[in-house]
């Protein structure tokens, strides 16, 4: 579902880690830098970034990366958070650093923090920009970002070229943006190792939030649940009584933070090309002529603005 563009200035906020991982899994292992290390993820990520810049010509943008799977504030709250994920192998860790270098060589703002995840950095940036009259395009397929969308914002799944706003969140999940964190707390999120309330799946979570509006209202009025026209309503109520406090804990994990340490003024997201950074990086990564020409053209176009 596409959304109509508005007259608000636009910032593109990119979930960099997602596209590095996608490139790592999709690009053949035939690219190596001058030291012989694999750079397949760097090549795939760079192609993605070039295509986005060529298609959109964004004036304000940033790319957010996760610094670690184990150091965010969520790990302190819930040590099992993302514990189901394997740590990136050294070859991929190295490529994450190189992808950030490519991003910076194109003059794009990099967002990274050891306490806050990429989602939080994007959310906090979006929140600050909104106060300054900007709309945001979140470039990611991650469902968590639905909670950030206002009427002017949109999310863009770049690989599928699908865009949606708040109505699209409801089409996908059955809940409104302001309910997404509650929804994920109830039904869980296997990707992040958040269990949710036992026995409550996606449809039940959406139905409960449609009736009660929020997780807090649901838990305060849990005695009403057995009387709902809901399959297994009595059992559902019992589970909510037993696991209500756990659900509140999970919401602290599923809610995107809006207070991460980011620069919220729009000028921080203007491209600032570093003219001497690109060529040595192209040599180190052994980019081919096509990729080098695309990168040079993008930097030249930005310098000539």
Strand order of the largest sheet: 3-2-1-4-5-6
Tell me what portion of residues adopts beta-strand conformation: 5-15%
The appropriate CATH architecture of the largest domain is 3-Layer(aba) Sandwich
Chain-averaged pLDDT: 94
CATH fold naming of the largest domain: Rossmann fold
What kind of sheet is the major sheet? 6 strands, mixed
In sequence order, what are the helices and strands, one letter per element?
Answer: EHHEHHEHEEEHHHHHHH
Please write the CATH class name of the largest domain.
Alpha Beta
Instruction: Using the alpha-carbon principal axes, give the shape.
Output: elongated
Instruction: Give the number of domains.
Output: 2
Rg, Å, rounded = 21 Å
Q: How many separate helices? A: 12
Category by helix and strand content: alpha/beta
What's a concise summary of this model?
This protein has about 300 residues and is an alpha/beta fold. It has helices at about 15-25, 40-55, 75, 90-105, 120-130, 165-175, 180-185, 200-210, 215-220, 235-255, 280-285, 290-305; strands at about 10-15, 60-65, 110, 135-140, 155, 160-165.
Please give a structural write-up:
Keywords: DNA-binding, Hydrolase, Nuclease. α2 runs parallel beside α4 (90-105) and α7 (180-187) crosses α8. The two termini are 33 Å apart. The chain is built from twelve helices and six strands. The protein is of the alpha/beta class. The longest helix has 22 residues, at 233-254. A six-stranded mixed beta sheet has the order 3-2-1-4-5-6, sandwiched between helices. The model has no long low-confidence stretch (mean pLDDT 94). It has two domains: 10-167 and 257-303, Rossmann fold, CATH 3.40.50.1010; 177-254, Orthogonal Bundle (DNA polymerase, domain 1), CATH 1.10.150.
